[in-house]
Amino acid sequence: MTDLPGRASSVPARLGVSARFEEGALELDLVPQPETLHHGVVRASVLSFAIDAVSGVSVDGAADVWTFTTDMSVRMRPLLPAPASVTARNTVLRRGRRSVSCLVAVTTDQGEPVASGAVGFAHVPRKEGDPLKPSFIPEDAPRFLQGGGTLTRPVRDEAGIEVIDAAAGVVEMAVTPDVCNPAGTVQGAMVALLAEAAAEELLGARFGAPAVVVDLDLRYLAQAHVGPVRTRTTLLGEGAGDPVQVELIDQSADRLTTLVYVRAVPAPASGR
User: Fold this and answer.
1) What is the rounded CA–CA span in Å between residue 262 and residue 171?
2) What angle do CA 90, 94, 99 make, to 5 degrees?
3) 10-20 burial, b for 16+ CB within 10 Å, e for fewer?
4) pLDDT tens digits along 100-148
5) Helix, strand counts (H, E) of the chain
6) How far are the Cα atoms of 23, 61, 140, 154, 161 from residue 171, in angstroms, in the given order?
7) How does DSSP classify residue 60?
């Protein structure tokens, strides 16, 4: 449940994702919107929502246990123009008592590869005082993910991301119900979006041209309940294609919540 939106009007709920069962397996479909594209390409952070949710819902179950994403890697085909729709399918690689590892294939409606995601989860018992965990089984996903409408502004704007210092890759996001999961912490794809925005700003300012993020490696270290969450960004090299390290800091506690490595490529000559 921690991979899902906290409410129907939240930003993750309006990314255009729906769910269905095919031969007893959960599949998530994403219909790209102009608001979820960057220079004509589906954002890596938006794909990360489908990757996180299809795997998380598939392995979650116990009513008294949270299933938290611990790490996620997203690899995209560079600069693939947004297809009409994409589908995410999950495979469980290893299932233990305390943790699960999954591999997610993301393809077009024609079966062409779009991206691949590797996700790790930890099972954490619900503590007294935690938000109530809704009763939920994977078969409920089509109803739960039937959509909360569509975005009316670019997803960065909908999430409330503010640019503090573009040249340094410093961006910030308030912790509001619109970006949180049912556990009351920032939803994983919104964390990815903040890191993606930080890399875009740094690379755009440093090299004078827009960039499109194609790879994300996220390590979720702590939850952000209060915020705001601000980025600390470092280019690991001298070229536009070199890795970017993004640290997400919960300003309320001066605590590192997420470590992200990002790789981007120059944006195509045209596209939204």
Assistant:
1) 15
2) 100
3) bbbbbbbbebe
4) 999 999 999 889 999 999 999 988 777 776 666 565 666 666 666 665 6
5) 4, 14
6) 43, 35, 36, 16, 7
7) -
Angle at 174 between CA 145 and CA 213, to 5 degrees: 65
Q: Is the pLDDT of residue 234 over 90?
A: yes
Residue 62 burial (CB < 10 Å; 0-12/13-18/19+)?
exposed
What is the per-residue pLDDT across 60-105, written as a single tens digit (0 to 9) for each?
Answer: 767 677 788 899 999 999 999 999 999 999 999 998 888 999 999 9
Q: Is the pTM of this model over 0.70?
A: yes
Q: Beta strands of 133-225 (E only): which ranges? A: 162-165, 170-173, 211-220
Count Cα atoms within 13 angstroms, Cβ side, for 255: 12
Residues in Cβ contact with 206 at an 8 Å cutoff, skipping those fewer than 6 apart: 167, 235, 240
What domains appear along the chain, each with residue ranges and CATH number?
12-266 (2.40.160.210)
Q: For the beta carbon of residue 254, count every other beta carbon within 10 angstroms.
A: 7
Cα separation of 135 and 2, whole Å?
Answer: 12
Which of these, 28, 33, 76, lies nearest to 52 by C-alpha position? Answer: 28
Kindly provide the residue ranges of all beta strands, DSSP E only, lying in 17-96, ordered along the sequence.
17-22, 25-30, 37-38, 41-42, 65-76, 86-95
**Percentage of the chain lying above the pLDDT 90 cut:** 65
